[in-house]
Specification:
The structure holds two protein chains of two kinds. By secondary structure, chain A is an all-alpha fold. Helix content of chain A is about 90%, strand content about 0%. Chain B is mainly alpha-helical. Helices cover about 60% and strands about 0% of the residues of chain B. The chains are: A mainly alpha, B mainly alpha.
């Protein structure tokens, strides 16, 4: 199982590099918000992979908190962009 | 039994993580905000659900599995809401490459409308409506 999780984490690292590329290049604010949202999802998946290896339930509370926070962050920035634009 | 569950869990984890990679590729390669959101949705729904289901097969207490299921359910509820708000904000602030869209159904109905055949149905001419008509046809012509 450790081998599988190592492979999964390296694939996730590749995905993080691509998402960071979009975060840096992204021509507009919504592009960057999409990239940040995706980054939060990748963090949630990484925490789940840590849960798979260690089987400690400490990871579960972090998982719930991060997935809640990513939603709140996306909605907040979306409202900010909508109010500021046009 | 343990081995079978581990293999199923490993396959789920790998497929879910590969969906993340595909979504990240789409985020880089696709041309505008809306198609990038379309790509990112693959990771935040199916990819996350597969990874968390794979983790669910590995935890020992039933309460932990229930909490993981709660995270999946919460993500499935909030991801459409967040994507909707973000798409609306991108459209209204005009940064999404709107002039490149092939179909723009949110265009101003009062402006020039080259293919507005369907919109010119009954109810659009609401000034000629008489009062004895039913409310359904009257409300159909009003755009929110």
């Amino acid at each position: 199982m450790t081998v599988v999780v190592t492979i999964c984490l390296s694939i996730l690292a590749l995905a993080v590099v691509l998402v960071l590329l979009r975060l840096i290049l992204g021509p507009s604010v919504p592009d960057r918000v999409v990239a940040l949202d995706m980054l939060a999802q990748i963090i949630v998946a990484g925490i789940a992979l840590g849960l798979v290896v260690t089987r400690k339930d400490t990871y579960l509370a972090v998982l719930v908190a991060v997935s809640l926070l990513s939603f709140v962050g996306t909605v907040t920035v979306a409202r900010f962009v909508e109010r500021r634009g046009s | 039994m343990r081995t079978v569950l581990d293999v199923v869990s490993a396959v789920m984890l790998l497929v879910g993580v590969l969906l993340y990679l595909v979504a990240a590729l789409g985020l880089v390669r696709l041309p505008d905000v809306f198609s990038r959101m379309h790509a990112a949705t693959k990771a935040s729904t199916l990819g996350l659900a597969l990874v968390l289901l794979g983790a669910m097969l590995r935890v020992e207490q039933a309460g932990d599995a229930v909490r993981l299921g709660l995270v999946i359910a919460f993500t499935f509820l909030t991801a459409p809401v967040g994507a909707h708000m973000l798409g609306r904000a991108a459209y209204r602030s005009g940064v999404g490459g709107i002039e490149d869209l092939a179909v723009d159904e949110l265009k101003d109905p009062d402006g020039p409308d080259p293919d507005g055949v369907e919109r010119a149905g009954p109810g659009t001419d609401s000034d000629t409506d008489t009062d004895d008509q039913s409310g359904a046809t009257h409300e159909r012509g009003q755009r929110p």
